[in-house]
Amino acid sequence: MTFVTRRVYEPPAPDDGYRVLVDRLWPRGLTKERAALDEWAKDAAPSPDLRTAWHRAATGEWDGFADRYRAELDDNPAVDHLLALGRDHERVTLLFAAHDPERNHAAVLRDHLAEHAR
User: Would you list the domain boundaries of the chain?
Assistant: First the structure.
């Protein structure tokens, strides 16, 4: 089971496997056809309060955001659903709309899933 991340605005790749959007809000300006999703798991995204706090915070708040999001994921049933998808599909691509490929909730989610997949 492999979880990878990719911006939803990038064209689908042949090796994406099962494509899951993990944003709570639909990406601006993107059609469903262009997104080429298999599933939208909005409940896997940070809570609205955490998302709002992150967008208002200074850049140096990344560690605090990641810690709070991991704490949310510990009690989130969407994690079990994504792990089940990982068992059913060799590769699951977690799609996100954020600009930063390193500092985004999908990267935290990917790492969390990898830790719990063992």
Answer: 2-116
DSSP per-residue string spanning 15-77: T--EEEE--SSPPTT--HHHHT-SEE-GGGSPPHHHHHHHHHS-GGGHHHHHHHHHHHHHT-H
Q: Is the pTM of this model over 0.70?
A: yes
pLDDT given at position 59:
52
Size (the chain), residues: 118
Burial class (CB in 10 A: 0-12, 13-18, 19+), 118: exposed
Model pLDDT for residues 46-98, shown as the tens digit of each residue: 998 888 877 766 555 888 889 999 999 999 999 999 999 999 999 999 999 99
Q: How far apart are CA 103 and CA 114, in angstroms?
A: 17
